[in-house]
Amino acid sequence: MLDQPLRSPLDKRALRFAIGFPLALALAFFAAGFTFHNEVPQGVVLPTGGYPLALPAYLAVGAGAIALAGVGISSQGARTVLPRLLRRIVMGAGMSIQLTIAALFASALAAQAGTSEAPSQRLDATVLAMGSGAAVALGVTLAMSFKPDEQWTRADDAELGRVLDPALAADSVEYWVHPRSSVVIMILLLGILPAMFLGLLSPWLGVASVAAALIAIGALSALVTADRSGVKVRLAGLLPVMGAACVDMDAAVALNVSAGRHGGWGLRHHSGSASFLAASGAAVVVRLNDSTSLVIGAPNLDTADVLEALLNRRAGKRP
Q1: pLDDT for 230-258, tens place per residue?
Q2: pTM recorded for the entire structure
Q3: What span, in angstroms and rounded, lies between the C-alpha atoms of 271 and 280?
Q4: Are 68 and 75 in contact (CB under 8 A)?
Q5: Could you count the other beta carbons within 10 Å of the beta carbon of residue 123?
Q6: E-assigned strands of 17-148?
Q7: CA 162 to chain centroid
Q8: What proportions of the chain, in percent to the nearest 5, are helix, strand and coil?
Q9: Distances (CA, A) of 289 to 177, 251, 292, 306
Q10: By C-alpha distance, which of 285, 288, 279 is closest to 316?
Q11: Mean pLDDT calculated for residue range 59-70
Q12: Class of the 173-179+220-314 domain?
């Protein structure tokens, strides 16, 4: 009899929605609000009052409020330890609150558009009423339609297959390759410190500097997965950049390598081989049938040995 697996404390599908929807709404609010850039030359006053803010700053505050409130509240509905009814209520409330915040900031923008001086009304009552009404309606709809139950996924199929066939577990490896913490800190500092000064010239330059640092870290991080079909390297865990099928492999060997001899850090094509290394050190060199090779970084030699054993065991074989 199979042991009953422990229930995950988080509903992953609900969590993806709880994070993805507020971020998408915040981005849409920012993009839509930017179309008013010619209508508010003197800036926009926040719904709570105060001095006028430049339109990009106003939209950033609104988008930040939407994202923080939406993710902060809705993510609690993904906790499987909460009662089912409470999870429904929390998800619906999160939807209503983030949409209401969007309507609040949109109503202030609509009221102040086309005015050269501070308007007599800081909020457009019509926009706020219509937006809030829609927010409540969508929140109730989500609360009634949300099913707080874990759904069967491909990951469950894979786990069931490994339980029924223990050999599958030995033919599956997954790990992350990423820079050392000191390198990550250095890259962040190189992005954040200039952003503090560039932001004085233009907020966009500051954002671009930080974004460039995050992109650089992502370009040095990858998810390596290997199974009976082959090995794949996905940049930042998403973008496939390198891989090979087991049937195309001759052999693999785990060893310590120098990143400089393979073109440097990150994804490189050098002397007929492709490589992805976050640093010099443990890696697996895979020789292919066409006389080319792949060099895949690993966090340590133990992990590299596991990947080497799997690829050598499956080399030249079809899944």
Answers
A1: 899 999 888 888 988 888 888 889 999 88
A2: 0.51
A3: 18
A4: no
A5: 20
A6: none
A7: 28
A8: 55, 20, 25
A9: 26, 9, 7, 22
A10: 288
A11: 92
A12: mainly beta
Q: Which residues contact 187 (CB under 8 A, 6 or more apart)?
A: 179, 213, 216, 217
pLDDT category of residue 120 using cuts at 50, 70 and 90 = low
Q: Tokens 């050098």 correspond to what residue? A: 270
| Tens-digit pLDDT profile for residues 177-202 | 988 888 888 888 888 888 777 777 77
Report residue 17 CA to chain centroid gap: 12
Q: How far apart are alpha carbons 221 and 278 in whole angstroms? A: 7
Specify the amino acid at residue 70. G
- What secondary structure letter does DSSP report for 79? B
- Which residue ranges make up each domain of the chain? 12-145, 173-179+220-314
Degrees, nearest 5: CA angle 99-65-50: 110
The token pair at 11 is 């509903």
Instruction: Give the 3-state secondary structure of 205-216.
Output: HHHHHHHHHHHH
pLDDT at 169 over 70: no
* Backbone conformation region of residue 272, classed left if phi is above 0, alpha if psi is from -120 to 50, else beta: left
